[in-house]
Amino acid sequence: MFPRANTSSRPLGQCSTWCRLLGQIEYIFDLGNWNPNFQGEEGKKYGTMLQILQYPFSVGSIHIRPSDHATAEDSPAIDPKYYRGPHGNLDMEAMKQCLQFVDKIVHTAPLSNIIRSSASPSAAVIKDDKRLGEWITLNTITDWHPVGTCAMGGRAGIEGGVVDERLRVYGVHGLRVVDASVTIHNPSFGITPLSASKIKKPPPKINNFTYTEFDQIDRNP
To answer: Is residue 67 domain-resident?
Structure first.
């Protein structure tokens, strides 16, 4: 078993009138050991059940590392902040319940006919609420195909996202984001042509002076 956290925005699941119809957890079963934190025994065969939380409350951060000699090759500081924040405990509770449900799945026929035991977490850990929470914290990773990681801030500005409506990164001179990470809730398409049209849009003229893109950024960081 291996929990993963999606990066989709939780508000979609919270605020939508049809949220009760949304699947909150995705389960994927595959052969082999997917967990890098678990070393299987030689000669034994393993299967992995992934539990993916679709609309987490937890919100992480990514920042450039402070340095006087930073380069484009330097890795950013990424903190996913799994299970933290005002409602991070709800994410944890959801993961606990889905792991316990997976335990029922693998102990129900026909899977129970071929699965001998739970390897990680063990049956003892699954039954211990505290130890299960610790295991989940240590074994959670981000799922594939994330969107919304550099979402548009909208009216909330920098407090609500990473880029403005013209895809300019707040507070960074001359930097844009042009991919699916700027979407707010759902996966989308057509980001590239939309971005091109916004980038090519001529800057406004004020009092017979034309302000450049960078002038606007500097005036409104």
So the answer is: no
Q: Considering 63, 87, 107, 145, which one is annotated as catalytic?
A: 145
The reply to whether 145 belongs to the active site is yes
Q: Name the residue type at position 201.
A: K
Report if residue 107 sits inside a domain: yes
Are residues 42 and 118 located together in one domain of the fold? yes
Residues of the chain falling short of pLDDT 70: 1-20, 145-146, 185-190, 202-221
pLDDT digits (tens, 9 = 90+) for 149-179: 788 888 888 887 889 988 999 988 899 998 8
Query: Which of 113, 142, 171 is the endpoint of a domain?
Result: 142
Q: 25 with 84, same domain?
A: yes
Q: Which residue reads 């996966």 in tokens?
A: 187
- Identify whether the C-beta of residue 62 lies closer than 8 Å to the C-beta of residue 77: yes
Integer angstrom CA distances of residue 130 from 3, 123, 133, 135, 137: 16, 14, 5, 9, 11
92 and 124 share one domain: yes
Query: How many Cβ atoms from other residues are within 10 Å of residue 139's Cβ?
Result: 19
Amino acid at site 199: I
- 34-38-42-43 Cα dihedral, nearest 10 degrees: -50
Structural domain range at position 87? 2-62+79-142
Q: Measured between alpha carbons, how far is 195 from 206 in angstroms, rounded to an integer?
A: 24
Domain end: 104, 119, 142, which one? 142
